[in-house]
Each structure stands twice: as C-alpha cells, then as structure tokens.
Amino acid sequence: MKEARNSKNIKTEESAGINRLVPTLYTTNQDNQVLKEIEDRNAHRRNVIITGIEEKTEEDVMETVTGLLEKIGSITTMSFITYRIGKANVDKTRPIIVKFENEIDKEHVLCKKWKLKNMTGCEKIFVRDDMTWKQRETLTDLIREARERTAERENERWTVRGRRTQPYLMKIQQQQQRKHQK
Fold first, then answer.
1. Both 93 and 22 in a single domain?
2. What range defines the domain where residue 2 resides?
C-alpha cells in the first residue's frame, strides 16, 4: 500500500511540475509574439502603400511612382524600390509597396500626400503607412469605437489621432457646443 501511495504522490508531483511548466511556455510564446511584432514593425517602418493607381500592361511601376512623387512635390533623388502586391486581376487594381532607403524620405512623402486630393486624376489615389496586422487591427478597433461613441452622443464627435505613431481616441467639440459656450 505504501508503494502505491508513493507512486500516486510522485505522479501528482510530476503533474504539478508539468502544470508549472505550462505558464512558463505560455509566457515564452507571448514573448515570441512580441518579438515577431517588433521585427514586423521594423520591416514595415520605411514602407508606404499606394492604392488607386490603374494597372497597365507592361507598366514600369518605378516610373509610375516616380511620376506620382514628382506631382506631390517630393524629392526625386530619393532611393526606393517599388512593386505591386497580390495576384494580377482584371477587376481590381493591385496596391503598390514603396520601400524607401530611410524613414525620413517616407515621412516626407506622407507629409505631402494631402496634395493628391486636389489634383485632377489623383482623387482616388491614396498613400498610407504600411502597418503590421496587429497595428491595423488596433486602428480598426479604435475607429469602430470612435464611430460608436459619436453615434451614442449627440453633441460629441470622436476621432482617432496619432494613427502612424500611437493611436488614441480624441473628442472633438462640435460647432453647436462652441456657439453655446460663447
């Protein structure tokens, strides 16, 4: 009987030991996910995505992007690599990834992208930061929350600020509120 009890105790201790290892492995998995996210952000930090540029047969994407950058007044001496992503499809226009040599060139382009909406023929062309899945998911959740808060409250409008850095919700006063305050 004593031997049976001892074997049960050993199994219990072994089970307890395994149970103690599981949280450690889970933490390591979380650490790996964090490290992967950091690596992904580093890989995306110098990239922009351009959408809305019509795809032509035998097009030179580099020429197309260079022309667009010249239109918005960006420095044409920038060094970058361009390519379309996804499979070619007659019904859809594929986005273009632009990988800049440094972050300063990328920021320069992002600061001048507002000029596109005032240019004829460029109204449907958009330049945006290349984000990781996690960043896009967070941004989408914040935008959804801002819309919900705006819909719930009559005199409040909510928006997402800091989209490229650390996104956060911000309340914007409506003109009606400003008139009542004066």
1. no
2. 1-43
> Exposure of 167 by Cβ count < 10 A (0-12 exposed, 13-18 middle, 19+ buried)?
middle
**With contact defined as beta carbons under 8 Å apart, do 66 and 75 qualify?**
no
For residues 122 and 106, membership in a common domain is answered with: yes
Those residues whose C-beta lies under 8 Å from the C-beta of residue 130, and which sit 6 or more positions away, are 44, 47, 48, 49, 97
pLDDT tens digits for the chain (182 residues)?
A: 444 444 444 444 455 555 555 455 556 778 888 888 888 888 889 999 999 999 888 889 999 999 999 988 876 678 899 999 999 888 889 999 999 999 899 999 999 999 988 888 888 999 999 998 888 899 999 999 999 999 988 788 999 988 767 888 888 876 644 554 55
What's the structural domain count of the chain? 3
Same domain as 146, residue 125: no
In 3-state terms, what secondary structure has residue 49? Answer: strand
Same domain, 103 and 29: no
Is 24 found in the same domain as 55? no
- From CA 84, how far away is CA 88, in angstroms rounded? 9
